Amino acid sequence: NYLEKLARPVLTALAADQLKEKMPVEAKSPDQIKERAKYTYLEAFGRLLSCIAPWLQLEHLSAEEKKLQDKYFKLALRSIQNAVDPGAKDYMNWGDEGGQPLVDASFFAYALLRCPKLWQGLEQRTRSRVITCLKKTRRIKPPENNWLLFAAMIETFFITVNETHDKNRIDYAIQRHTEWYKGDGLYGDGAEFHWDYYNSYVIHPYLFDILKIITEKYPEFEPVRKKVSDHNSRYAVIQERLIASDGTYPPIGRSITYRTGTFHHLANMALHKQLPSQLNVAQVRCALTTVIEKVTSSPEMFDANGWLRIGLYGHQPTLAENYIST
To answer: pLDDT value at position 157?
Structure first.
């Protein structure tokens, strides 16, 4: 139900080539709306698709859920087609302006990596356009922090579809994060440690899936993959312990308005059946369900037309950073 509330407005509008027309652009303050509008559409699409992709890939569903999945799979395919078509009204900023497109293009690539059926379902012309759009991000030089993994994810996706890839962008991201490991399952976001949830929003899920794929092509990455796997397990335990019995968790650091994204890593470990022995599968499922129920219980979370609004619990735009938008 939560998935459908998030997905319906975005994919329905984008599939009809009407996302830019219909989606409201919200920011922390009115004077930032014009700037955020350059990026917010790809943010909404890329991040949504990334995290519903495992469900779109799922098999052995009940008849009722399969019907819902088919609906959103078709909407996703049409949405991709419009997002990468230069002639469409909803053609997106894949790197023509600013550095932000690197982030959200990588979430889009992550979606195709998580749901190979999406790539297989695209016609050849759209596939070529996807590759062209993703390659536009190569002009963006990521800063020395978690952004290195965004560049690495795009190149990793290229590996999975037999496209020419830049191994150096992958190698450098992994090398730097290995250097930035601080201990007890936690990485620095760059050289410094930041007490926030970027280890879960980006660092752990990206490292896990990137290393899983590139190690198959480049076996020399196996030692670092094993080491990172131990870190993945430790941080999963920490994440589960952060969840209180009522579904609340410490609102620490920046980007707290990503709500359930706080537990991206724990969910990813459950998805891949990589939960450590200390964590029972049902225990994690119940914990994450309780988090979803807690943060989505405010009636102010969505506007009158069903669009998600900024906040942690309900509508709280003052919790946003300057880069946060719809």
So the answer is: 98
Determine phi and psi for 187, rounding to 5 degrees: -105, 150
Q: Which residue has the tokens 């027309």?
A: 21
Single-letter amino acid code for the residue at 100:
Q
What CA–CA distance (Å, rounded) separates 211 from 224?
8
CA distance 220 to 171: 11
Helices 63-83 and 40-57 cross at an angle (nearest 10°) of 140
pLDDT score of 71: 98
The phi, psi pair for 186, rounded to 5°, reads -120, 135
- C-alpha 10/C-alpha 121 separation (Å) is 20
Q: How far apart, in whole angstroms, are the C-alpha atoms of residue 320 and residue 255?
A: 7
- H-helix or E-strand spanning residue 258: none
Tell me the backbone φ, ψ of residue 98, rounded to 5 degrees.
75, 175
- Dihedral, 219, 223, 224, 226 alpha carbons, nearest 10: 110
The mean per-residue pLDDT over the stretch 285-296 comes to: 97
**Rounded CA gap, 16 and 22, in Å?**
11
pLDDT at 87: 98
Q: What is the mean pLDDT of residues 22-43?
A: 96
Which value, to the nearest 10 degrees, does the dihedral of the CA atoms of residues 162, 167, 169, 175 take? 130
Give every CB contact of residue 195 below 8 A, 6+ residues apart in sequence.
252, 253
220-243 pLDDT tens trace: 999 999 999 999 999 999 999 999
Amino acid at 295: V
